[in-house]
Design brief:
Amidase signature (AS) enzymes, alpha/beta, about 15% strand, about 425 residues, single chain
Length: about 425
Amino acid sequence: MTPHDALDRIRRYDGRLKAFVQVFEPPLGVGPGPIFAIKDLFDVVGVPTGGGARVPLAKAPAANAVVVDKLLNAGWRAIGKTQTVELAYGGWGTNRAVGAPHNPWDHTIHRAPGGSSSGSAVAVAAGFCDAALGSDTGGSVRIPASTCGVVGLKPGRGLVSLAGVHPLAPSLDTVGALAKDVTTAARMLAVISGPDGANAMRGAFDAEAALSAEVEGQRVAAIPLEHLGEVDADVGRLYLAALERLRKTGVTVQMVRPPKALDESFAPNGLIMAGEGWRIWRERIETHRDVMDPWIVRRFEVGRDISDAQLAEAHDRRAADQREFHGWLSAYDGLVTPTCPIPGPPMDQVDETISPLSRLTRAANYLDLPGISVPCGLTSEGMPAGLQILGNPRDEAAVVALGAAFEKVSGWNGRLPDLAGFA
C-alpha cells in the first residue's frame, strides 16, 4: 500500500467509520515500508495522546513510544492515530467520551468493533493501512481483530517495549500487532521486538523463521464446545469447521478440558486490572470524572475497594496458576479456542455490565501466553469470527507458525468488507 492509496481510502470512508482521531498528511517517516496506524494510547512526538478521553493523557509528548521509533527507523510509514476505548479499559469498543468507530462489516447498523484497540482493527479491516499498533491487557488486540476480521498478534511479556505506551495494568499490559494477514503481523512484531533496557528483556523475534516453520506433526489442544460456556451458534459452527481445516495442515487436534486455571482466570485478571488501573489513574479520574465515559469510571472504581493485601494475594495466586498451567500446556504445541464467543453486536444491544468478548482472551494475559487471532469465517449475518491460538510461554514462533498454516487453509483469502455504504 502506498501513502496515496491509504489517504485516498481514508478520505472516502473514514468520515463514517471514524477509525482515526488524527490523520498524518503527509505520513510520518520516510522509506518504502508498509503503512501503519498507531493506537491513541502510544506517544508520538508533538501529537496529543488522547487515550480515548476528552482531556489528553499527554498534550505534546517529547518522545515517540519506543515501538513507534522502531517502525519509523525501519522504513515503515505512520498514517495516523486510531480510536481507543477510554484508557483502554473495555472490550466492546464503546466510547461515550469521544465516540466509537463503526465495525466496517455492516454499514446499516452501528456494530461493536471490539476493544480496546477498536480504531486500529477498523483501520486495518477497511484497508486504510497494512498494519496497526495495539495494546492488549485482557484481549484488546485479539478481540477487535476477531470482530473486524483481521489478524491480531499478542506476544508474551518482555518481548516488546512498553515505553511511551500509557498503562492500564502494568503486570498484564502487552503491545501487539493488528494486520491484514499473519505475515504482516509477524513482520511488525519482528520490528518492534527486542530489548529496550527496561521492561523488554528478550531478544528480537525472528518472523521469517516462524513463518517458514513446518507444523505437520505438531499437536494442539482444543476445547470442546460444551466446555466453552455459552457460544453463539454461528461462532461454534465456524470454530468446529476451523478445527477440521487445521487438521488438514498435518496438525493433530486433541479435544481436551484444560486445568481450572484457564476457566477461572477471568475474575482474577479483572481484579488485577482494576486494582492496578485505579492506582495509576485515580488522580485523573477524581479530577476529570465528569467528562469521562461513565462506564470506564465505574470499572476503575472497582479497584478503589481492592486493598494492597488483596492485590498481592491475587499476584501470588497468578504465579501459582501460571506454574500449573504452563506445566499442563507443555505437552502441546498450542491451545485453540474461538477468539470471542459472539460476533460484534449492534451498539444499542451492548451491555456494559458484562464482558463476553473477553471471556476467552483474558487467560492469555493472566497466564502470560502469546496468542493470535486469525479470521475463520463469517456468521449468517455476515460478521467475522476468529480462531484463537495460544502458545507456550515465550513461544511466539509456534503461534505464528500455526496461525500462518491455518490461514493458508482457512478459506478467508484476505477478504475485506464492502465499504460502499460508508462512502
